[in-house]
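hey so u asked for the seq, here:
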Amino acid sequence: MTVAAILKHKGNTVTSVRPSTTVADLAAVLASRRIGAVVVLDQAGHLRGVASERDIVTALAAHGAAALDMTAEQLMTHNITTATLSTTVAEAMAMMTEGRFRHLPILAGETLVGIVSIGDVVKARIMAQEGEVESLRAYVAGTG
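ran it, structure tokens below
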């Protein structure tokens, strides 16, 4: 299974902010949409980074209340890992585990086409494994 299958199921809507978005506004977007991260896109729509709840907490710990006036660009993760539509779920899970991040932007060439979270990847793995178990049960029972 690939991340394309995940996006086909969950959709490819991606919440984004501009680099100049304040941390206070960024936090409001995350809270209102009940999500853990957003992509940061420049005016041309190019991916510049990912800003997450963890980035906000880190900025608050380092700068206190002044962090709320910082911008997404100042606190976002700049060197992000991305995947393609053909990246397998297992590869995506390995990238996220090794890189210790929870949101993986998906690109088709230079174009952002979606984002998958660790929850999306785990759910896909569980569904695939449940399907395999059912297939094996049917085979053993002689009905498959």
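The radius of gyration is 18 Å. The first strand starts at residue 16 and ends at 17.
lmk if thats what u needed
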